[in-house]
Design brief:
The chain is built from 10 helices and 20 strands. With about 350 residues, it is of the alpha+beta class. Helix 6 packs across helix 7. The two termini are about 25 Å apart. The protein binds uridine-diphosphate-2(N-acetylglucosaminyl) butyric acid.
Length: about 350
């Protein structure tokens, strides 16, 4: 374990924002993490944990300690005729875990193919795509308290999962470092193709027999066609969450905008597609200096080259303002701001 000084974070965030961290340390095990936590620098400085850096926007230099999580390893804990419990280090690339499960023909996370980021971020924001969320396969996780080093196990209920949300974004925000995540994968997968785009893609591909592999391939094709590759154009996926409105508000909006993209929630409210709202405000594909809203998915803000975090933040604020003005709806940021 080595603490470094004045390190550029450009290659550690998928927006590619060039800010500097006062201190930076990579950890590869829980023991190294414990050692780091008891160091003087960790005790005195503010701390931020970075995984894949795919859901963060740096708007200024980080005047503290960045803990870069590199805790790897995928291990089978338990197995019977129906399920397999797999424990993954939180510093594994999420898609590598998906590929591992597909290679073993295990079901549960194939719809979550190609989501950027590390395994540890999965439960924090309850990652989801194409009708599936990590909470659907979640068994438990282990985490270490960032100040006192206490090691704790969190079960399903402890995590308080919700849409792109968990206890780790609320009561316990920035308090625990997730070190491993255990998922329950299925040996007799039940495929979820409820999300329209998957059915359409499978048809285009001429697939008749569903498997975890074919679904994953379809999801990868959809994502690649719509979402910019951060290795080519800096971005952090959806910048905003899809907002929830009441039925009354929805009816009112629908009477003016009959094509409004939305779906009903179990709680009686309606979720609106933020991408649609942003597009209607004229932002889709618009380039503003070094930034913009992506041409194929308005919800994704991009860095065309040398954008600063402040520039992207300011674009986001303008977009929020115009959606509020046109539709009377607040869209919340999904990406963390530092
Ligand atoms: N839409 C538009 N214009 C746009 C974008 C979308 O009209 O520019 C419309 C689409 O036509 C569709 C609806 O909005 O009717 C939904 O679009 P899409 O299927 O692309 O999904 P989304 O709601 O925009 C969410 C997640 C994505 C996830 C997809 C697929 C959030 C904030 N985003 O996007 O997650 O991949 O569903 O499940 O929930 C991420 O979190 O980083 C992310 C990419």
């Amino acid at each position: 374990m080595k603490i470094q000084n004045n390190i550029s974070l450009k290659s550690f965030n998928t927006f590619g924002i060039d800010v500097t961290a006062k201190y930076f340390c990579e950890i590869t095990s829980v023991d190294e993490l414990q050692e780091l936590i008891s160091s003087e620098i960790a005790r005195n400085e503010k701390k931020l944990v970075l995984g894949g850096g795919s859901n963060i926007l740096f708007t200024k230099d980080f005047e503290g300690l960045i803990i870069k999580n590199n805790i790897r390893g995928i291990e089978v804990l338990e197995e019977n005729d129906d399920i397999l419990l797999v424990k993954s280090g939180s510093g594994e690339v999420w898609h590598n875990l998906v590929l591992w499960s597909i290679s073993k023909n295990l079901g549960g996370i194939e719809n979550l193919s190609l989501i950027p980021g590390y395994v540890g971020a999965g439960p924090i924001q309850n990652i989801g795509a194409y009708g599936v969320e990590i909470k659907n396969v979640f068994e438990n996780l282990e985490a270490t308290h960032i100040d006192i080093g206490e090691i704790r196990q969190f079960n399903f209920n402890d995590c308080k999962f919700d849409y792109r949300d968990s206890v780790f974004k609320n009561e316990l925000k920035s308090q625990y470092i997730i070190t491993s995540v255990t998922l329950r994968l299925n040996k007799h997968p039940l495929f979820n193709t409820s999300y329209g785009a998957i059915e359409t893609e499978l048809e285009k591909m001429g697939i008749r027999k569903l498997s975890v592999k074919t679904i994953s391939d379809a999801v990868i094709r959809i994502r690649k066609s719509k979402l910019p590759d951060p290795a080519v154009i800096g971005n952090a996926g959806s910048f905003f969450k899809n907002p929830e409105v009441t039925k009354e508000k929805f009816s009112q909006l629908q009477s003016s905008y009959d094509k409004i993209a939305a779906y009903n929630l179990q709680n009686g409210n309606v979720k609106l597609a933020a991408g649609w709202l942003i597009e209607q405000c004229g932002w889709k594909g618009k380039v503003v200096g070094n930034t913009g809203s992506h041409k194929d998915q308005a919800l994704v803000l991009v860095n065309y080259g040398n954008a600063t975090g402040e520039e992207i933040f300011s674009l986001a604020t303008d977009i929020q303002g115009s959606v509020k003005e046109k539709f009377g709806v607040e869209i919340e940021k999904e990406v963390n701001i530092a």
